[in-house]
Amino acid sequence: MRSSSHALPLGVLTALLLSQLCSGIKWLTLSNSPVALHINHTQHCKLLPNLVPAQTQLCRTHLEAMKTIFQAAREVKKTCQKTFADMRWNCSSIEIPVDNPKYRPDLDRGTREAAFVYALSTATIIHALARACSSGDLQKCGCAPTPSETPAPDHRWGGCGDNLLYGVPLGSKFVDSPMKLKRSHGNKLMHLHNSEVGRQALRKALVVKCKCHGVSGSCSIRTCWKGLQDLREIAMDLKSRYLSATKVVHRPMGPRKQLVPKDIDIRPVRDTELVYLHSSPDFCSKNDKLGSVGTQDRQCNKTSVGSDSCDLMCCGRGYNPYTEKLVERCHCKYHWCCYVTCKKCERTVERYVCK
């Protein structure tokens, strides 16, 4: 077998070939691969089987940004699972088993879960690129331009703002390219709409951040810039839109088909709302065809009245208690100068898991 100076390690190639079978939001499968550590030449871009031609071309022309894009794929997975940890659907759809490398059907169908993941994916990749610019990780971009509006009294524009002017076009092209290849149909319109909702949530998360200057911390002058909120806050905003998402149908409206609310089709779809085409299962029981892993053995909160309560999480099946020993730092004491010593204390807590 002929060797090449641009060849990737065998383990990386194996991971990529496995991920080739994946469906759904294919670029997110790159979160399972260490390939980001080895993408250092344009020839490597064609070895990424989950990318459509337009994404491969973006890889070639924005090679240095690929590491940021891979990191964004991992961040989507982590953030989604944290955001929905208290609900029956806990973003398990993004957890791809090694022996069955494909997304679960709930992300292949036009469900509200798919709507959330598409919106979060768009927001995350743009968030990562905009911050990479302001942190100096990318040579092709830098700080955001100085805001055009007049700053507040005793404020001045400075610092280094997160660069959405770079992040939005590149991130949007990368995420939306697979959908734009498809013929006009409901799923395509749904995903492109929800992708725009993700961009909208991100723009809303661009806030003024300031640093104080002055004698003895008087803060007589503030240097300010526009920076993005943490991704966790953006995800929670999208979660609230997920909970109030609108079910739509794809039907003729004038010369072409459009998405219109199923139950209130007298108004157009609002550009602030997530939309979905198909109802989701209740996620109570395991059903591979619907993409539900069920809630058996999920931890629940006995004292909660929310979605993580044992009654709702366990779908009325009941729950089993168990005890867990926790070792924590305690009796901490500050010593002059300047360190802290603590003891270790052990306590037993009661946990509950669904039957």
From TrEMBL:
Domain of life: Eukaryota
Keyword Lipid metabolism appears in the UniProt entry: no
GO MF terms, alphabetically ordered: cytokine activity; frizzled binding
One term under GO cellular component: extracellular space
Keywords of this entry: Developmental protein, Disulfide bond, Extracellular matrix, Glycoprotein, Lipoprotein, Secreted, Signal, Wnt signaling pathway
BP terms from Gene Ontology: canonical Wnt signaling pathway; cell fate commitment; cell migration involved in gastrulation; embryonic viscerocranium morphogenesis; heart looping; neuromast development; neuron differentiation; pharyngeal system development
Entries under PROSITE patterns matching the protein: WNT1
Subcellular location(s) of the protein: Secreted, Extracellular space, Extracellular matrix
Signal sequence interval, chain numbering: 1-24
Functional note: Ligand for members of the frizzled family of seven transmembrane receptors.
Family: Belongs to the Wnt family.
Protein name per UniProt: Protein Wnt
